[in-house]
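thought: fold this chain, then report.
action: predict
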Amino acid sequence: MDTVTLVMQNRGRGSSNILKHHIQTFLKNGYKVNLVCPHDCEIHDPNFQWVQVDLGDLPVPVHEHLPSASEQKPASEMTYDEAMNYIERYKQAIAKVGEETDIFIGHHGNISSIALYHYCKENNRDYQILEYGTGIEGYIRNKNRDGRLFDEIKQMLEHSETLYVITPYVREHLVGPYISEAKKNKVKIIPLAVDEWLKGMKDNEVMDKYDLKPKKFILYVGALIETKGADALAQASKIYGDQMETVFVGRGPLTDQLEEMGVSCKILGFQSDAAKATLMKNAYLVVVPTLLKAEHFGLTAIEPWLFGTPTVAFNHGGPADIIQEGVNGFLVEDLSVKGLGNKLKAIIDNPERVEAIDTDAMYRYLIANYGQKYVEKYLINEIQSLLTHESAREFKPKVS
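observation:
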């Protein structure tokens, strides 16, 4: 039985779901799986092993604010010496399963993947990296970053056997400038899977509990932080808030400020998967308002399509590669709060734009490109190609 070892900095939000799907895919197809991470992902299978990274008294290293972590430290703000303290702990954990591992995959280009790079370099092993974008972006945006640490990031990306990214945007703008041209030409785009099981979930109380009417509110789902644009959407609601409510699902530093920032805003806090599914189904639009930085992919951008609900996002980053204007959502050309508010008001004022969307075609497109069966087939194809050293085919989105 071949063994795949996955290395991850922490159990985050969206990337944690992706990691879990990858683990389950490998297990289902006869592989043994190790997860090297400070936190377990709660998978119970005889062929799965969680290898805990002992952080001791160190804060949890994060890419951006993580609501589930009480004490946390942005990895991109660490000095080289601080990071090396973490890296050594991750490397020790990797070493526990190193000899039995056939394929190493580091999730995110960050300190845990640097640890993987160091371990494999010292032991003459190959490794793969899956870069979502979040891991490296913090270092790119931090003008006061430690240059030695960022050099480690670049070396880790460059020396990976295969470098995977999740969208063309991540390849061209977040990874491409920091690797050689030869490496850039070999970067592969790997699709992420939507959680299809959400479609069958329902919360019979959430709508009445918060006095919400079907198709009479705009929905935001995610961390309530500036880098995700929660404040941008709240401020934009001043333009359309007299016509439609804006509902925020999630937690974060902006929790107590958003209602005062906008008009007709409701903060629901953390909600169950069933509640979120019900809210996405009943929302008029789901908005991914990332403005300060471009969203890299955003599962929130595609999950609403399970329920026939269009998505609105700024026309930059990963959503620009995913959303098709008037087909499965709408793109905001004016990258500003005012531009977002005006776009949402224009859609509200012209309901025929939403009514014209073929929701059946939207769903077919979603399953064809991001359905779990399709993504699982792709993942196993890649793993088998790594084991046999034969080339696997490139992922290219299908047209709707």
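thought: worth noting. The longest helix spans residues 80-97.
final: tokens above.
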